[in-house]
Write a structure and sequence with these properties.
- The protein contains 14 helices and five strands.
- With 342 residues, the protein is mainly alpha-helical.
- The longest helix has 18 residues.
Length: 342
């Protein structure tokens, strides 16, 4: 049985991916995962011609994934298995509507790629996500230095994450004009800011972070009065690197452009928490922090909805399901009325 790709299958996969990209408007990142899932199935199935599809292929592949191991040597998680099977289900459903396949494949054949109800529930269950408490974030912010322009910038990055929980890709693409200190807001215009799914998001500063607002204001003042940045310049410019005279490289101020990757931001955030003697949370953890804080302190449904919109969610259930987990202690307190030390 040949393990080399066959042109007929490759052509079919390309057509499917074109459909997913242009008709379903999927991102390149999502398409990369779908390519990997299709290839995994094709290799496992010995590169058999897709026109010979049989439901036994689906059942066999499901069994294969249940026994498969990931890169770490551990069994694949249920959510990973579900993601792979979802691609195959969409692929077979699409095949059932194509010339040359329609008479051989029924739409219901795609259902054989479904997980069991139990596994589906486990795959959908949101795993615990580590996140700092509000007090931990404030502590880390207070210990960040402000000795020069670079440390001013780094502290302002941490501050804006505390205030908004903005996604890191959006954060590094912000321009000076997108922050309004008077209105206490960030305008995430998808034509200029790398928002998720191209959403337009109006974000307002969370209350109770006065020191964060001060750190952000100090940085914007520096950009305006010292660096002479304008409204369309990057809010958080990349560090400029130059070669040393003898060897190596050194930081030489800022390049008047945003970072090309999110890694520098992650290092800044990780380092700030480490300096405060705390676990090294990443930028995304601020979203969990703000959502959990809202879930614990909101006094009305409207307040929960407002916090959800602030994170860029169109459905408050997304916020509560993915970000708003309540600790066991808080759950006990809310249900029984007993304080944690009772």
């Amino acid at each position: 049985m040949s393990k080399r790709p066959i042109e007929k299958n490759e052509r079919t996969k390309r057509q499917f991916l074109h459909y997913r990209k242009y008709a379903r408007q999927l991102s390149e990142k999502t398409l990369d995962r779908e390519i990997a899932a299709l290839e995994r199935f094709d290799v496992w199935n010995g590169r058999k011609d897709f026109t010979r599809f049989h439901i036994e292929w689906a059942m066999g592949f499901r069994t294969h994934l249940e026994q498969a191991k990931g890169a770490t040597g551990k069994p694949l998680g249920k959510s990973t298995t579900r993601a792979i099977l979802t691609v195959l289900r969409e692929f077979v459903l699409w095949l059932s509507q194509q010339d040359g396949f329609r008479s051989r494949i029924k739409p219901s054949d795609a259902d054989y790629f479904n997980l069991s109800h139990r596994d589906e529930a486990e795959a959908r269950a949101a795993p615990p996500r580590p996140a700092p408490s509000v007090n931990q974030a404030k502590r880390a912010l207070s210990m960040m230095p402000e000795g020069d322009a670079r440390t001013l910038r780094d502290k302002a990055i941490f501050a804006l994450l505390c205030l908004t929980g903005i996604r890191v890709n959006a954060l590094i693409s912000l321009r000076v004009k997108h922050v309004d200190l008077v209105e206490r807001s960030v305008t995430q215009n998808p034509r200029e800011v790398a928002t998720k799914s191209g959403k337009s998001i109006d974000t307002f500063f969370a209350k109770g972070f006065e020191d964060a607002e001060s750190a952000l204001a100090s940085w914007i003042e520096h950009l305006d009065e010292v660096a002479l940045y304008g409204p369309d310049d990057p809010l958080f410019p990349a560090t400029a690197i130059a070669a040393r005279a003898n060897n190596g490289f050194k930081a030489t101020g800022f390049a008047r452009r945003p970072w090309k990757s999110t890694e520098p931001t992650r290092k800044i955030v990780n380092g700030a928490f480490a300096k405060a003697g705390l676990p090294q949370f990443g930028p995304h953890a601020f979203r969990h922090m703000l959502a959990r804080h809202a879930a614990n302190t909101a006094t009305s449904v409207a307040e929960l909805v407002a916090n959800s919109q602030n994170l860029g969610h169109t459905d408050v259930l997304t916020t509560l399901r993915s970000y708003g987990q309540i600790s066991r202690e808080r759950q006990r307190e809310l249900i029984t009325g007993l304080k944690p030390d009772a």
